[in-house]
Amino acid sequence: MMLGSVVVGIGIAGCVRMRDLLAPLPSSTAEKFSIRGFVSRRNLEDQQGVKQISTTEALSRDDIHAAFICTENTNHEEYIRQFLEAGKHVCVEYPMTLSYTSAVDLWNLAQQKGLVLHEEHIELLTPDFKQLKKDIAGKTLEEGTLHFTGGSLKRNFGFPSFSGIARLTWLVDLFGELTVTAASLVEEKENKYMKMTAHLLTRQQKPLTWIEERGPGLGRAKHIHLRFQDASITELPAGQREPVGLFMQDLVLFGRKLQGEVSAAELQEERSRILHCLQLADRIQQLSENTQA
Ligand SMILES: NC(=O)C1=CN([C@@H]2O[C@H](COP(=O)(O)OP(=O)(O)OC[C@H]3O[C@@H](n4cnc5c(N)ncnc54)[C@H](O)[C@@H]3O)[C@@H](O)[C@H]2O)C=CC1
Ligand SMILES: C=CC1=C(C)/C(=C/c2[nH]c(/C=C3N=C(/C=C4\NC(=O)C(C)=C4C=C)C(C)=C\3CCC(=O)O)c(CCC(=O)O)c2C)NC1=O
Ligand SMILES: [Zn+2]
After folding, report:
1. The CATH number of the domain where 191 resides is what?
2. Closest ligand (CA of 235)
3. Residues enclosing ligand 1, CB less than 6 A?
4. CATH number at residue 92
5. Cis peptide before 95 (omega within 30 of 0)
6. Nearest CA to ligand 1 atom 11
7. Do 55 and 96 sit in the same domain of this protein?
8. What's the CA angle centered on 122, arms 166 and 162, to 5 degrees?
9. Phi and psi dihedrals of 226, rounded to 5?
10. Atom of ligand 1 nearest to the CA of 122
11. What does the pLDDT read at residue 291?
12. Do 92 and 140 fall into the same domain?
């Protein structure tokens, strides 16, 4: 059976989703999707030959089974809830929500309804990350820093521990569950500049620092300083480029979940990681807001 799909939010991510749905990876679960329309709060002409439909139509049509939520982050929660309540599977661009408790609610709703709730994590699929993970396998961490820089985000992307949750996901995927010991935020609104610093500890009580820095003219980059018992890594390794795009890899994974090809254990592990990261993001926000006041 084909999985009728709708893309919600026509920014960079939404357009890429549409492109991938229109030209799925051959012989993959991505071929099971069939795009039926897109939703936008603007009135748009056809996009890549796909027609705009209303949210009401997307929620009520029997031939629509899945929604791709690609709006700015402040709207994710409301759209996810509406589509789950309407009985549709959901793939949402990270971060799923801007609070831990709302994410727990949504996972519970998906479970009650027997629906797949999938959060995109292309940062785990990048060649550089795959290589880094291989390079540090078996090494014992002493301390580390992950410093992200990037251009200013538009409004409505949420607190930086949420908009930048991809970086936190890296740290948790590499070093396991973490705790937050301190966090602060420096913001210069008039300069569109911000720098968040979070201090974390691994289960083995090793310190990790996560810095998320954004401002006009800052290039999108990650700096790492990882010190292990017998080695240091101070540069991201360049992984082997892959023929399949990142969003397409994520689409295939979502498709595999819908086809029941992902084991319950794997689903549980992923859900735990996602909720753990959102919980850390929540804690970082709380601690930062306390230091600001
Ligand atoms: N661009 C990328 O490479 C990646 C993006 N994401 C996530 O995808 C999501 C969307 O990001 P982008 O597409 O890059 O952002 P974007 O700024 O290009 O698009 C945001 C979306 O919101 C819509 N929008 C915002 N305010 C609106 C308003 N007032 N009225 C009508 N429409 C409005 C835009 O048209 C667009 O659909 C975010 O959750 C982001 O974190 C995740 C991974 C990678
Ligand atoms: C060119 C302008 C450009 C914009 C506006 C952009 C936006 C953008 N990229 C993101 C993540 C991401 N973006 C990319 C990669 C890309 N994303 C792309 O739009 C393109 C062209 C690539 C390059 C192939 C990746 C891999 C992530 C996941 C997080 C990360 O690893 O940084 C996010 C989510 C929040 C974040 O993690 O920062 C946004 C809003 N990315 C860009 O590169
Ligand atoms: Zn640095």
Report:
1. 3.30.360.10
2. 3
3. 9-14, 41-42, 70-73, 93-94, 122, 154
4. 3.40.50.720
5. yes
6. 13
7. yes
8. 25
9. -120, 125
10. 43
11. 76
12. no
62 Cβ neighbours under 8 A, 6+ residues apart: none
Of how many residues is the chain composed?
293
51 in the same domain as 116: yes
Cα-based distances in Å from 85 to 53, 74, 115, 262, 273: 19, 19, 10, 23, 24
Mutate to test the pocket of ligand 2, among 220, 223, 241, 250 (most ligand atoms within 8 A of CB): 220
pLDDT (tens digit per residue) in 254-290? 999 999 999 999 999 999 999 999 999 999 999 999 8
Same domain, 113 and 257: yes
pLDDT in tens, 201-255: 999 999 999 999 999 999 999 999 999 999 999 999 999 999 999 999 999 999 9
* Domain range for 220: 125-242+279-292
Of the listed ligands, the closest to the CA of 224 is: 3
